[in-house]
Give the backbone structure.
Amino acid sequence: MVLSTGSNKIKTAIFISGTGSNLKSLIKFSKLKKSPITIEMIISNNSKAKGLRYAKIYGIKKRVFDFKNTLSEKKVINELKKDNINLICLAGFMKILSKSFIKNFKGNILNIHPSLLPKYKGLNTHERAIRNNDKYSGCTVHIVNSRLDSGKIINQKKVRINKLDTPETLAKKILVQEHKLYPAAIMKVLSL
């Protein structure tokens, strides 16, 4: 993991596919004096991602790539390297990165996942937790490796599942915790 050195903040790119609520939370975190990161770029695989509006609001460079093939990924890697990006945070990014992409940023890609990993890797985590009558769900920040949602866990936050919870209400409760957990995870890995 890249280390923050004194006043030099780690140049970070956030990858999104949707509304960007974790992105917004990370931008606010990056503006704090104690924050070890500066967000230099927002990358999305979806040109209609609502979260891209934060690029304009906060004056951050944005790029859209389709991530459909290795050529597209090579363009992303070149863009990131050109801007000296040392940390990538996946925040609701709905594409699986190739082994080659991950190798290029080995150990420097974080992801937030809406379950208590290793439970419920992949999609539909809230439905699966409710269907299995779990008492708790939550969220996990982990280092990305070549296996889906299987990298080293940095931190987790438990959220109680109530009898009346639906996948939507559970998602909302967990999202509140995600906004706290991701900045805490970044602080943790960059202060190691």
